[in-house]
Amino acid sequence: QINNNNISESLSQVQHVVLVLSGKGGVGKSTITTELALALRHAGKKVGILDVDLCGPSIPRMLNVGRPDVHQCDSGWVPVYTDAQKSLALMSIGFLLDDPDEAVVWRGPKKTALIGQFVSDVAWGELDVLLVDTPPGTSDEHLAVLENLKKHRVDGAVLVTTPQAVSTGDVRREITFCKKTGVRILGIIENMSGFVCPHCSECSNIFSKGGGEELAKLTGSVFLGAVPLDPLLSASMEEGKDFSQTFPESSTFSAINSISQTLLCSLQAS
Amino acid sequence: MADVPTDAPEHCPGTQSEQAGKSSSCEGCPNQKLCASGATKAADPAIAEIGEKLSTVKHKILVLSGKGGVGKSTFSAHLAHALASDATKEVALLDVDICGPSIPRIMGLEGEQVHQSGSGWSPVYVDDNLAVMSIGFLLSSPDDAVIWRGPKKNGMIKQFLRDVDWGELDYLVVDTPPGTSDEHLSIVQYLSSTHVDGAVIITTPQEVSLQDVRKEIRFCQKVKLPIIGVVENMSGFVCPKCQNTSQIFPPTTGGAEQMCADLNLPLLGKVPLDPRIARSCDEGRSFLAEVPDSPATQIYLDIVKSIQDYCSNHVTDEHKAT
C-alpha cells in the first residue's frame, strides 16, 4: 500500500512514459534514448531518463555526467541533472556503484527489487516525457519495469532495430512481448541504417538496409524513421557531447529530430 | 543473493546461507523446516550429472561480452565453423541466449526442430561433425517471445547441458547473452564440475562497449573463469569504393588494445567491419567459406588458431600437473 502511494507521487507530475525496447543488444537503444532526450529538450520539453540496464548502464557516459552521488530528499532519490536548468534528469545504477568496473552479478529477484525502487522512489518532479532505457531481451528487467509502471501509466514503447534479419528477428519477439503485456507500440526505429563514406560519399549498407521498415509493415506498426551509421554520432556518444548542439546541420540529427517530433505528436494525440 | 526464491518472505537470508531456516525472518515461512534441515545447502545434483555427461567433451569455450550486439553470436558461429573445418574434429555450438537466440539464423537452421531420442534431445546438425542446440529450435514460430524470469532460464540451460545427447566432442562452444546475470552464473555453476578451457571476450572499439566488457572481465575473475583472450570486432571499415578506412565506432580510449594492456590480457585480433559478414549471417552461411578473400576472414582464422593453440597447450599443462 505504501509502495503504491509512492509511485503515484513520484510519477504524478510525469506526463508521458515511453519505453525504449529491443530484443537485440547493441542496436542503439541507449544511443537513441539519449538522442531522443536531447532532441526533446531541444524542443523545449522537460525530459527524464530511467536507465534500467543494470548489468551494462551506458547512459551516464553518453550524457557525460560523471559519477555523482545520488542524494535523498523528502520525496525520494533526487535524479542527476545534466544542466543547471534541470531540463534533463537521469537515474541509473551507474551512480550507485563505487567502482565503475564492478560487475553487477545479480540474478533476477535482486534486479527486480532495484527496479521497483527506481520506479517508486525517484523524485522526478515535473516532466513532459520520461524515457525508460532497457537491456536487451524479454526477461526480469522488462517484466519488473512494466509491473511497477502499470500502477502509473505507460504510453507505449519505441522499438529499436538494425536492418539485419538477425536483429529484426529478435525485435519480432519483442513485439510479441508488447502484445502479451499490453504495451502499445509507438513505432519502430531503424538504426545503423547505411554508412556514407566521409571520403567518397559512397553509401555502404554495412548492416543491410530496410529491415526496420519491412518489419513495421509486416507487423502493422508505425515506422518512425531510419538513423544512419555516423562516426560523428558515435564520437559524440563517447565524449558525452550533445549531438544536437555540435552537429545540428547533419542528416543524422535531422533524422533524430524528425523522429522525436513524430513521437511527440503521437504522445500528445493519445 | 542467488538463492533467494522470488516468493520468499522479506529479508530471506537465502536458501544456501548459514542462516537458512534460522533467522527471524524465517519464522512462519512454509519452507523453514526444509531450510533448517540443511537440505537446501547441498549443491544441485544436476551439477554432478552434467559433469558426468560432459566428461566426453575435450574442450569447452565460452563466448562472452558485457555488451550486446558486438558480435558474440557471429563469432561463436564462425569459431564453430572454423573448428569443424577439420573433418576429424567433432564440434558443437550451444546457444544459451534464451530471450534472443540468433544462432539458428546465423547457422542457416531457422525452422528446424529438436528431436527426442533414447539418450536425450538430439541437437540439429549443420554438418556431420557440427551440432547446434538453441532454444530457437523449441519455438513454434519466429514471433514467439520467451518471456521468462531467471529460474526458468536456468532450468532450460540445465536441460541443454544435461539432457542433450552431445556425444563425444572435441569442442563445445557456448554462445551467451549480454550481461552478468542468471544465464552467466548458471552456465558457470553448471559447468563447475567439469573443466572449462576458458572464455573468449568480444568487444567493439568504443568506450561505451569497453566499459561493459570490463565488468564482464571482472565477472570472469570473480567466478575464476580463465580468459583465453579478447577479440575486437567491428574494428574500422574499409570503403569498398575508395578503400579508405573509417572508424565507425571510434576507439576513443585506445580500444581493446589499451584495455588488454591495462588488464594484462591477450588481444587475439581485430576484425574489421565488412558488409558481407552481416549478409552471410542473415543468409545463414559461413562467411569464411563465402568470402575467403575478405581481410576479416584471414583475421578470424588467425584468432581461431590462437584459440586452438591455447586449448591444446592447456591440456598438456594439465597432464603435467596430474
Report on this structure.
Chain B: ATP binds at residues 66-73. Chain B: Heterotetramer of 2 NUBP1 and 2 NUBP2 chains. Chain B: Its cofactor is [4Fe-4S] cluster. The complex is a heterodimer of chains A (270) and B (322). Chain A has ten helices and eleven strands. Chain A is α/β, with parallel strands linked by helices and 270 residues long. Chain A has one domain: 3-Layer(aba) Sandwich (Rossmann fold). In chain A, α6 (165-181) links the parallel β8 (156-161) and β9 (185-196). Chain A is globular, with a radius of gyration of 18 Å. Chain B has a single domain, classed as 3-Layer(aba) Sandwich (Rossmann fold), CATH 3.40.50. Chain B has helices at residues 32-36, 45-53, 72-84, 103-106, 150-162, 182-190, 207-222, 255-263, 275-283, 287-290, 295-321; strands at 57-64, 91-95, 115-117, 120-122, 124-127, 130-133, 169-175, 198-203, 227-232, 237-238, 245-246, 267-270. In chain B, β3 (115-117) and β4 (120-122) form a beta hairpin. In chain B, α3 packs across α11 (295-321) and α5 runs parallel beside α6 (182-190). The longest helix of chain B has 27 residues, at 295-321. The model of chain B has no long low-confidence stretch (mean pLDDT 92). Chains A and B meet through α4, α5, α6 and α8 of A and α5, α6, α7 and α9 of B.
